């Protein structure tokens, strides 16, 4: 699975995810990626893309959970990411990337590794594989 | 901040003793994907264009499980899914189970901008692709020997593993990641 989230100069947020699915998946099995609110979600506060064990990402409506937590609890992006990855999902389930309306980014996984990269207009930059 | 972008190439269980040349290949690919999206944003491009082009690059890079380099289903096929969502309008487009669309995220964006629906599946998504301007390929385009070998190993493992459905070890878990 691959994904990207961005905030542009006009303050618009968008999220995109694309996948080949799961090795050896059964005929007709659909994963989290095309389920809006699970593997992919964006509103005017935050944009989120997920990767990992699709069944768990779907059962927790994960991308929307991060956005809702941020909106209703009025928390920071990182606090919402920590809540989703550390409290809602179980170890080994999934990883997420997100960008908020202020241009903050957050990338976190509880699977041990996630190929990831991020940068912004102030020159902050992060590229990584393992946690 | 004026703009920001983040991308991923999949989460899972990747051993830390990955060969150095392979690790280098992944790091260079992540750098290149990041440069594509950040250049678009720095030049005033839209978030939608930045994420579509970034994901297109990752779909075309066979290191990643999307587009070329996708994993195989139990029937030995490559069935691709994608979704895109515009935070400023809460509009979205999603597709599942396509086999002839070179860049699935571009088709998902067409669903968002050129249809009144949000989600198209399998044959319906293929029919919609016939009606819009997206690049089509023969399903064999997505084949990579590495992923096909993975399918073989997964099916061998399936024969051996105990009846319980939940994977236990990290190695067993590794198969479940998209």
How would you briefly describe this protein structure?
Chain A is α+β, with helices and mostly antiparallel strands and 131 residues long.
Topology, pairings included?
The complex is a heterodimer of chains A (131) and B (178).
Chain A lengths: L1 E6 L5 E7 L20 E3 L3 E7 L1 H6 L2 H11 L4 H12 L5 E7 L4 E5 L3 E8 L4 E6 L1
Antiparallel strand pairs in A: 1-2, 3-4, 4-5, 5-6, 7-8
Helix pairs in contact in A: 2-3
Chain B lengths: L3 E9 L7 H23 L4 H14 L19 E7 L4 E8 L5 H11 L4 E3 H10 L13 H16 L9 H5 L4
Parallel strand pairs in B: 3-4
Antiparallel strand pairs in B: 2-3
Helix pairs in contact in B: 1-2, 2-3
Radius of gyration of chain A: 14 Å
As an assembly, this protein is heterodimer
Query: Pairing-aware structural class of the strands and helices of chain A?
Result: alpha+beta
The percentage of residues in β strands of chain A lies in: 35-45%
General form of chain B: globular
Uncertain stretches of 5 or more adjacent residues of chain A: none
Structural class by secondary-structure content of chain B? alpha+beta
Span from first to last CA of chain A? 17 Å
Mean pLDDT of chain A: 97
- Largest interface in this structure: A-B, 80 and 88 residues
């Amino acid at each position: 699975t691959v994904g990207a989230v961005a905030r542009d100069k006009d303050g618009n947020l968008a999220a995109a995810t694309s996948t080949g699915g799961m090795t050896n998946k059964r005929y007709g099995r659909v994963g989290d990626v095309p389920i809006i609110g699970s593997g992919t979600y964006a509103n005017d506060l935050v944009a989120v893309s997920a990767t990992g064990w699709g069944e768990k990402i779907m059962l927790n409506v994960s991308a929307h959970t991060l956005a809702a937590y941020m909106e209703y609890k009025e928390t920071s992006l990182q606090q919402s990411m920590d809540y989703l990855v550390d409290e809602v999902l179980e170890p080994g389930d999934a990883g997420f990337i997100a960008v908020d309306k202020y241009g903050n980014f957050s990338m976190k996984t509880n699977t041990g590794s996630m190929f990831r990269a991020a940068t912004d207009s102030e020159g902050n930059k992060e590229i990584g594989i393992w946690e | 901040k004026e703009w920001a972008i983040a991308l991923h190439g999949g989460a899972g269980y990747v051993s830390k003793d990955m060969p150095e040349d392979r690790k280098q290949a992944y790091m260079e690919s992540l750098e290149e994907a990041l440069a594509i999206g950040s250049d678009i944003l720095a030049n005033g491009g839209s978030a939608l264009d930045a994420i579509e082009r970034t994901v297109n690059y990752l779909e075309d890079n066979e290191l990643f499980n999307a587009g070329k380099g996708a994993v195989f289903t139990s029937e030995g096929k490559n069935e691709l899914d994608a979704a895109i969502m515009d935070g400023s309008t809460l509009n979205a487009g999603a597709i599942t189970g396509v086999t002839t669309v070179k860049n699935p995220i571009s088709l998902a964006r067409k669903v968002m901008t050129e249809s009144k629906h949000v989600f198209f599946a399998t044959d319906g998504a293929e029919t919609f692709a016939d009606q819009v301007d997206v690049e089509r390929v023969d399903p064999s385009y997505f084949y990579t020997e590495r992923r096909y070998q993975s399918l073989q190993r997964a099916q061998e493992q399936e024969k051996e593993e105990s009846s319980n459905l939940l994977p236990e070890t990290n190695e067993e878990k590794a198969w479940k990641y998209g």
